[in-house]
Task: structure prediction
Amino acid sequence: MEIDIKSFITNALSEDIGNGDVTSLATINLEQTGEAIFNIKEDCVIAGIELAKLICNQIDPRLIFSFKVKDGEFVSKNTSIGNITGSIQSILKSERLILNCMQRMSAIATKTNYYVNLIAPYNVKLLDTRKTTPNFRVCEKWAVKMGGGVNHRFGLFDQILIKDNHIKAAGDIKNAIESCINYLDANNLQIPVIVEVKNLEEFNCIKNYEIVDRILVDNFKPEEIIELIKHNTTNKTIEASGGINATNIVDYAKTGIHYVSLGDLTHHVNSIDISLKII
Result:
């Protein structure tokens, strides 16, 4: 992840700064130093502090950070959480990228934490998805972990997830599984295999395959999952997704599943209001 983060910062700074921050160059002396304070304007689980440090270090290693809180901690509104001291020009170069990242990451961490607390009594883990902002996935999934969630596959390369479109293209679910087995054997690969099922018939078809690590039940109602689990004679790990939200997630958690995955964690959030002010 370290390489991905560095690459993200480099590209984001290039997008924002280009050939130079002409406003700061035109109005502020190059040698001028000062201090800027981070203010949190609404309750949240803070996320992005460590990323902010990495951003500033890439812009100007002489910048000094001092924070009262750590990533993943709850912060009340109207709270000052820390400061940056050093070159004013460097602080202003970093300001927008830092705030953009912290505001969105904190929103994701806060939302994740809310869902995690809802299902905590039921020993169910909350997963994210690939429904992320292009080129910002590493940070968004980082924020999910700060909120107490668990990262699902990072991309198309680290897990096999056989979904409805793969099954349709393969002919049926059995053909998809058999092809998967042949592919893994031919390439000497050992990676997790997750298979989505649309009904009890498909579940019973694949539950005896040792290669299947987890079964995804998509758009099932809680009562349908309860019935399906009665047929889980091979004790497969079960993940639920589709149509799950704050009003029904506890009903799903009560069914006996192991994971709930929500794309909503990353693709539908309102950024937390955070400011950085020079004093």
